[in-house]
């Protein structure tokens, strides 16, 4: 590489000047070749501007399209939808059949108006219209008026639409007899997951539902606000008049028009898989999770499968997969090729309109946490209003069988119940005062409130000095394999015949547990029978994915050395960066069954509930949260099938608040 001397070109030698000229010629030649290659291979086709006849050409196109444009007015409905003030002015629709069917943008009906009125071209008569059906994939709505002899729009075949061609965005908003118009170009094709034409013409509520036409007045598509990130009919409105507008190809609408005429609401087709949360164009198409009972699960897809093709098209990113899947409706079939280890699998599935969320069924009992000589599960407590209470189960009953199969211990009963959904009926064999009873119980959903009274786990049991450890209280252990130190608090009355819950206390930023809080944690460990474990890192050093193995080894070490009730293991997270620790808890649901978050992140990802993996969330907040935010948080967690408890606490929590937290931990063992 050449670089100029400090004094500039004047000091260059003749040799240097000659070499510079040669280099410049070479660069010019290379640039010329590159430009030629780009021109020859570029898919962009730029139509010539209409020139001197522009006004005449545009006017003629408007006149050609005008007989198919109608004006739409709505009356009544919500004033605000998705925090957006809904418009009350006229909008636009396009006639798609001579007998009164009209297609328009669903944006125009987001407010669920009570009345819809349509004004036909060249008239002042307003006719009542009925909403026939909605296409929730392409965000369009079909209307019907009582009229015949109408002039339907002419659709341009999708394969004839070119990037760079001139287009008109038309609406019938300001003048019922003359369309409003915006001139622009086709900017891109196959946008918004393969569904839309993109244009730089001004697109706004003034022409939503109207046509995007060529300069002959033929319709390329129907203008509607769209957003790759959203699913609401209001999404994408913030881009109006920005030079980023979208239209759904009219040919695609005609392909499903008969289904819409039949009144069918067309819903997006869902597979039931999730991928990493990085941007789709950067994310490898490796499946992170498969929803139970989903089309993906029934087709045989598994976590860690890599998608190679979809509908015969190569897939190298999640974004490319969405380009195929985003155009599909519920009921459509999609075929895929995936790699699994060293093999390649062909799968096919029928996409679903909704995915069923698994919800664990519960009896509503707390087992005793003291080892018994006899087989079966002794009941410590029956929760109020639970399925068990309604069926007549009592404290101190012993569950001896489930659906005719003998039950040996708590672990066996827990595993068998963990795959049963809420609403399923089971038959329990109970031992009560020497007698055997059979009771039918319909399993219920998780109780999300904290009961007023829950009996302490070891109340009434006699201490046994022979079963105590030599060391208890605050201890420090080191795991040599991973060089991780952790502190553990063993209650002073710890006995090996008791099963203790495990609380893993962690600050996302490596902060230490304040002394005042530690005293409260010790108290609830003594009363509720818990071990408090604190993995140690350098102060101020955040936990990251690189610490996963060390944290797993910490759990291994505690479970091997101490008597742990594995149904009552939870992670308590403090700090402002809890995302990794949330992920650690949710990806280890076979070992961790509860997650308390004391600092609610702005964004966090959750898995969907699965049979065999019980898990609960608790969200504690110290600042005021509106009822709306609390409701949305609860709805988000519950939409994944996970029970959630949301509560405001002081900083630090009061003794009463610590008692509620301790009871919540204890209830993780509910079966």
From TrEMBL:
Q: What PROSITE patterns does its record include? A: PDZ
Give the signal sequence positions: none
Q: What family name appears in the similarity comment?
A: Belongs to the peptidase S1C family.
One Pfam family this chain carries? Answer: Trypsin_2
Q: Name one GO biological process term.
A: proteolysis
Q: What is the name of the protein in this document? A: Putative periplasmic serine endoprotease DegP-like
Q: Which parts of the sequence belong to the PDZ domain?
A: 254-342, 352-434
Question: Transmembrane segments in this chain: where?
Answer: none
PANTHER family from the UniProt entry: PEPTIDASE S12, PROTEASE DO-LIKE 8, CHLOROPLASTIC
The EC number(s) attached to this protein equal 3.4.21.107
List the Gene Ontology MF annotations in alphabetical order.
Answer: serine-type endopeptidase activity
Q: Which UniProt keywords apply?
A: Hydrolase, Protease
Species in which this protein is naturally found: Rubinisphaera italica
Q: Which InterPro entries match?
A: AB_hydrolase_fold, Chloro_Bact_Ser_Proteases, PDZ, PDZ_sf, Peptidase_S1_PA, Peptidase_S1_PA_chymotrypsin, Peptidase_S1C
